Amino acid sequence: MSLSHRPRAVTIDDVAEKAGVSAKTVSRVLNNEPNVRDTKRKIVMEASRALGYRPNPAARSLAGSKSFLLAHLHDNPVPEYVAATNEGIYTACRDNGYFLLPQRIEPDAADGLDRLQAFLFTARPDAVILTPPLCDNEQVISILEHAGVPHASLSAAQSTSARHVLRHDEHLAARKLVEHLIHQGHRDIAMIAGPEGHKAASARFDGYMNALELAGIHPETTLVEHGDYTMRSGLEAAQRLLARAKRPTAIFAANDDMAVGALTASLALGLRIPEDISIAGYDDTRLASAVWPPLTTIRQPVSEMACRAAERLMQPDDNQPREEVLAFDLIVRASTGPVPTS
Amino acid sequence: MSLSHRPRAVTIDDVAEKAGVSAKTVSRVLNNEPNVRDTKRKIVMEASRALGYRPNPAARSLAGSKSFLLAHLHDNPVPEYVAATNEGIYTACRDNGYFLLPQRIEPDAADGLDRLQAFLFTARPDAVILTPPLCDNEQVISILEHAGVPHASLSAAQSTSARHVLRHDEHLAARKLVEHLIHQGHRDIAMIAGPEGHKAASARFDGYMNALELAGIHPETTLVEHGDYTMRSGLEAAQRLLARAKRPTAIFAANDDMAVGALTASLALGLRIPEDISIAGYDDTRLASAVWPPLTTIRQPVSEMACRAAERLMQPDDNQPREEVLAFDLIVRASTGPVPTS
DNA sequence: CTGAAAGCGCTTACAG
DNA sequence: CTGAAAGCGCTTACAG
Description:
2 copies of one chain form a homodimer. The first copy, chain A, has 342 residues and is an alpha/beta fold. Chain A has 13 helices and 12 strands. In chain A, helix 5 (79-96) links the parallel strand 1 and strand 2 (99-104). The longest helix of chain A is centred in the first third of the chain and has 18 residues, at 79-96. In chain A, 47% of the residues are buried. Chain A binds a DNA duplex (16 and 16 nucleotides) through helix 2 and helix 4.
């Protein structure tokens, strides 16, 4: 079972010999470099295929000082989000001969940033993709820039011309969702927003406020509570909202987990959903369609953003804008309905 | 931002020069090889640390014909399970100087097995960890064995002396859970089992049957329905069970997703949980504590199994048995309660 | 216990 | 458009 049982691997010299060319020519063909006659190119391709040649990545890395590794640095508590991102990056990597190295980084742990440093110097990825909340961590960004590692971010709160950012329009998405509630007759719409003072959380909140304003609804600040994206925080925020003298008829939570917390709090109080209260989330996680009733929510194009981010890093093109905005979907399910008429 | 901006990296020769020894001695020290005087060992360690030396993995791989890559091949629809496995493997890798390369393999896709082949030959992992359901796929195992890649499995349905298997006792866990229901007075306990004829699913079913037999309850086969581990299948199985003339007072589903389906089906029929019916799952996923009421379930030691599996592959020891059984936990939550007295 | 030489399999830099 | 030589930074195999 040891590696020595493997037959000697086919090398570039084997291919060169079979094709009757130099190793350098084989290298040119396999790396899609110019300056090779088409006839030779064909011969090399066939020899390579016939022998089942697979370039040795270690040799390529050593000689070319590229690792062919694309790292995905993440610190997101929702495994689905990480998985969807990995899937998108992986698709792009496969088509470009790269490998995906997903790596959890905990910048708030005692040695979290040291580990990031160590990771960059030991694994030596050619580029890095950052997902929230890591992409908004200035220390992380700073370490990457000092190390000279190109990077791209998904849904970064602030975009600069210096880096690639792939996003969807969270402000618009939140507005569309709240407008959906308004169309159903709701006026007293509460929001469970993300952490206060959290840049990344503000777009969804602003979209909510914007929708209310556009509908001529006086935005009552008392209908806003904050959570930290966990179910528990959503449950507690909803309990505070539902204890108000003027109970909201709809709650929009900034993510599905908090929405599920609100759902749970409502059910525990004996409220029917959506007859007594409508609840909506954001992200369209598995949870959203698992709970009863299933949640109205926003689906963001996670895999597509990740795929595009990876392509940008592997195929640099200085002419394109650094920011790219992809489409989202409003998913309407049974957790929202017409406002109670009573 | 290009890699050329990075300062020239410290090499083994720099360390050797600073320490006043040969590169070979530095190599010995850093790889924990024997036959180095302690004084020299110390000097080398210090020189290495002072220079911030990081061995170049590409060079190590090329010279030593090891990739220092441990692959996790998975095809599990539950991202949490994959994430928990990755976390365990990662911990072990970090302590042993390896990198974790998670890779989704879809053996049923048209080119799924070809891609597995390609992955093994291009990424060249030194070893592979398989998780369900991939670890029970004979074609996958066969490809690994032909390629001569050592591997370990988590929770494989069948264990042989030829490979490492890390597991928990699913039969016992299922039995304990059903015994808990029996202690609460339930007699009409239904099960939503995994796919029929599915080896990996049988242990949980056998545990259920065993518990009934030990309690002197005649196991009524009509109280068993099958699902495919999705929420939808759990919902449909529960609908069939709840439509029976003799409605069960408790339902044990072979995983949390199907249990949530059963929960949803029950709530949709206006049943109260656990007052009218108790429901239990298996796996303790995020879903289990997200739904209302939260699910009684079994927590299996996923990360620990993954960590142990990785350690076994990186630190081979032919004297230890190939199979290792770790502990599980029965988690009792509000979805189960005393049998209805009516 | 230690080290000098060769080599892993590619790409880079150069020459033609 | 093509190739011979050198070199990437380690470990292996060997010698002492």
